[in-house]
From TrEMBL:
SUPFAM superfamilies: CBS-domain pair (SSF54631), Clc chloride channel (SSF81340). One of its GO terms (molecular function) is voltage-gated chloride channel activity. CDD domains: CBS_pair_voltage-gated_CLC_euk_bac, ClC_3_like. Pfam families: CBS, Voltage_CLC. PROSITE patterns: CBS (PS51371). The chain crosses the membrane at residues 6-23, 102-122, 187-212, 233-253, 289-313, 366-390, 402-419, 475-495, 502-521, 549-574. This is Chloride channel protein. The keyword Transmembrane applies. It comes from Oreochromis niloticus (Nile tilapia). SMART domains: CBS. Keywords: Antiport, ATP-binding, CBS domain, Chloride, Endosome, Ion transport, Membrane, Nucleotide-binding, Repeat, Transmembrane, Transmembrane helix, Transport. Belongs to the chloride channel (TC 2.A.49) family. It is a multi-pass membrane protein.
Length: 794
């Protein structure tokens, strides 16, 4: 129960500042604009003017542009107010209002069902295709190695991985299962299958859905912050990402499916948003659904519903109201239940590497746990810098023009080096599962090859520490080589033009390092139990050290060092173990890895890729401490042409069309006159274009010389003039404004907390300039001695 209150307090602390600033700032904005309540409702709520019915695509946004959170909030409030008032008119309207209220929960249910089903299908397909590289089941070719031997009546306990129904390719083709010739043939076919899978994956992505590549989490974070990327969450992206994710993971590349599953779940959320106008016509409401979908994606990726909700809150979401918290939890619950019903791993668990430990940890073990945290932080820093350098080289050189060859080359090198080592040959999830496992009496792994005392008679779960046998020492050498291989190859793999997640490779690096440290501590405790550090808690014949726990702590440390996750990471990891007993070691490692990594740079891998791609993302964790003012950042600057504005009642249709044609601005301030420059409001470029186009088609008398007016009453015009065009209802009468002496620290905080697209700079009601989100990002980059031109989008 205490954990529940902790998570709730964490959420409220994060969300309360947003809402308080939202309400206060919105009130100030209304006052500054000097708009009456009636004008505000007419101007910001209904985005139509000269027609009684809305025309299509008004108030929508163009590709690679940022949404206006305040406007979307205002539109949703007006929609809800209208539905509530109509619900009192008739029974049918009441039913419609109830359906509207329940539509959010229906969307969450559909997201959970589809994302859980897709995750189960992906897990089953990956399991089968991974084993297909080594052999085939003769009794049923669609069975994986494990499933094939499950169904065999000739499988023994000692040789449970061997059965007559499963044959390796060399045995099937030549009839010989052993020998140099069989090994070489199996080696060659392993590489061939890997190349085939990766080639199919990169070809499908390149031809049908270019947005299906990569992890997807950097783009999801950017989209949830209010950025528009058309097609990134589309139907084709969903289909191709699901198929190619199976191919990419099965090829044996050093990547995982957990990150892409978040992208897949968000595609499901976007798909179901299109079924309800409440979400399809409001980008702000759509992003609430996508936040919940991200939670469902992590839920099925790790079998951690609570961790998925916290991951969405901590890592990807930009705006997370309280109702989204409950809906995220419901979506994660349904997704986990659906995956559990499919049972893809056959162990009645949601993940392959679910473990349970039976030995408590001791305070003295915090020292190696913290050292693993230091290793995780250093690994995270090394990986981020090396991977970003390689990705930047890919973008700026000829290498980026040959994505297919790059994928084929990396796959060939990976398969060539991975096959000889049994710990790199198997899938990364299976490797992590073996590293996490505690050595019981029934384990047959090399890592459990200890020298047993023949007189030992203890319960299975309480086997004392024993001296390591030759299998353990052999495994340590192989794990050391696997660690070096994973560290190097993951740097070149992440970011290629195929679906590639980073969670599993990072966890694998940490699990390998942790298992090595765990075995070292275990053997020290056995051979030197009289040392002062072991004397008080590790007596001879006792089960003191659990190497699998060290692997789990190392996995958490490395994942935290790369992603900078803390709370959600710890929750995900203890949900994997099914108990709270080991939460302190996980917290110690996660916090240490974050401290160490933050000492070298605040950005995690996802934030670094956002910066690399130039997305307009304002991270709430970045601090702005420079003493600059709004006048230093606003446009127009000195020697720039004057600000493009519209007047309230003296601009013609031709003038507006010329202004739109000659500029690429997203909107235009509306002033009383060019002489006074008294601010009236702000009109979006897209709304203006659509309004004029629609007026020419449906309103008689509108010609190029018609006067466009934004006032309530038409201006006094000669009788010979053509009919004027009233566009007051597409005018935002309450644009957010600041004075020219407002500190940029305040302006940056306003842009972050309110999700503004732009704000206008005034002095005593007189318009001076405009600050856009892009201007803020470029100014911040300039203040940090970075290239301001790296911010490429609006």
């Amino acid at each position: 129960m205490s954990l529940y209150y902790f998570y709730l307090s964490y959420f409220l602390l994060k969300s309360s500042n947003f809402m308080i600033l939202f309400l206060n700032s919105y009130h100030v904005s209304l006052c500054v604009s000097a708009a009456t309540p009636t004008e505000e409702m007419n101007g910001a709520g209904n985005l139509m003017d000269f027609l009684d019915e809305p025309f299509p695509d008004v108030s929508t946004y163009e590709d690679f542009h940022t949404i206006d959170w305040l406007r979307e909030k205002s539109r949703d409030t007006d929609r809800h107010r209208k539905i509530t008032s109509k619900s009192k008119e008739s029974l049918w309207e009441l039913i419609k209002s109830l359906l509207d209220a329940w539509s959010g929960w229906v969307v969450m249910l559909l997201i959970g069902l589809l994302s859980g089903t897709l995750a189960g299908v992906i897990d089953l397909a990956v399991d089968w295709m991974t084993d297909l590289k080594e052999g085939v089941c003769l009794s049923a070719f669609w069975y994986s190695h494990e499933q094939c031997c499950w169904t065999s009546n000739e499988t023994t306990f000692d040789d449970r991985d061997k059965c007559p129904q499963w044959q390796k390719w060399a045995e099937l083709m030549t009839g010989h299962a052993e020998g140099a010739g069989a090994y070489v043939l199996n080696y060659f076919l392993y590489i061939l299958w890997a190349l085939l899978f990766s080639f199919l994956a990169v070809s499908l992505v390149r031809v049908f859905a270019p947005y299906a590549c990569g992890s997807g989490i950097p783009e999801i974070k950017t989209i949830l912050s209010g950025f528009i990327i058309r097609g990134y969450l589309g139907k084709w992206t969903l289909l191709i990402k699901t198929v190619t994710l199976v191919l990419a993971v099965s090829s044996g590349l050093s990547l995982g499916k957990e990150g892409p599953l978040v992208h897949v779940a968000c595609c499901c959320g976007n798909l179901f948003c299109s079924l309800f106008s409440k979400y399809s016509k409001n980008e702000g409401k759509r992003r609430e659904v996508l936040s919940a979908a991200a939670a469902a994606g992590v839920s099925v990726a790790f079998g951690a519903p609570i961790g998925g909700v916290l991951f969405s809150l901590e890592e990807v979401s930009y705006y997370f109201p309280l109702k989204t918290l409950w809906r995220s939890f419901f979506a994660a619950l349904v997704a986990a239940f659906t995956l559990r019903s499919i049972n893809p791993f056959g162990n009645s668990r949601l993940v392959l590497f679910y473990v349970e430990y039976h030995t408590p940890w001791y305070m003295a073990e915090l020292v190696p746990f913290i050292l693993l945290g230091v290793f995780g932080g250093l690994w995270g820093t090394l990986f981020i810098r090396a991977n970003i350098a390689w990705c930047r080289r890919r973008k700026t050189t000829q290498l980026g023009k040959y994505p297919v060859l790059e994928v084929i080359a990396v796959t060939g090198i990976t398969a060539l080096l991975a096959y000889p080592n049994p710990y790199t040959r198997r899938s990364t999830s299976e490797l992590i599962s073996e590293l996490f496992n505690d050595c019981g009496a029934l384990e047959s792994s090399q890592l459990c090859d200890y020298v047993n005392n023949p007189n030992m008679s203890r319960p299975v779960d309480d086997i004392p520490d024993r001296p390591a046998g030759p299998g353990v020492y052999n495994a340590l050498w192989q794990l050391t080589l696997a660690l070096i291989f994973k560290i190097v190859i993951t740097i070149f793999t992440f970011g290629m033009k195929i679906p590639s997640g980073l969670f599993i490779p990072s966890m694998a690096v940490g699990a390998i390092a942790g298992r090595i440290v765990g075995i070292a501590v275990e053997q020290m405790a056995y051979h030197h139990h009289d040392w002062i550090i072991f004397k008080n808690w590790c007596r001879p014949g006792a089960d003191c050290v659990t190497p699998g726990l060290y692997a789990m702590v190392g996995a958490a440390a490395c994942l935290g060092g790369v992603t900078r996750m803390t709370v959600s990471l710890v929750v995900i990891m203890f949900e994997l173990t099914g108990g709270l007993e080991y939460i302190v070691p996980l917290m110690a490692a996660a916090v240490t890895s974050k401290w160490v990594a933050d000492a070298f740079g605040k950005e995690g891998i996802y934030e670094s890729h956002i910066l690399l791609n130039g997305y307009p993302y304002l991270d709430v964790r970045d601090e702005f401490t420079h003493r600059t003012l709004a006048t230093d950042v606003m446009r127009p600057r000195r020697n720039d042409p004057p600000l493009a504005v519209l007047t309230q009642d003296s601009t013609t249709v031709e003038d507006v069309e010329t202004l739109i044609k000659d500029t690429d601005y997203n909107g235009f301030p509306v002033v009383v006159s060019r002489e006074s420059e008294r601010l009236i409001g702000f009109v979006q470029r897209r709304d203006l274009t659509l309004a004029i186009k629609n007026a020419r088609q449906k309103q008689d008398g509108v010609v190029s010389s018609s006067v466009v007016y934004f006032t309530e009453d038409a201006p006094q015009l000669p009788a010979s003039n053509p009919q004027p065009l009233k566009l007051r209802r597409i005018l935002n009468l309450s644009p957010f404004t600041v004075t020219d002496h407002t500190p940029m620290e305040t302006v940056v905080d306003i842009f972050r907390k309110l999700g503004l697209r732009q704000c206008l700079v005034t002095r005593s009601g007189r318009l001076l300039g405009i600050i856009t989100k892009k201007d803020v990002l470029r100014h911040m980059a300039q203040m940090m001695n970075q290239d301001p031109e790296s911010i490429m989008f609006n």
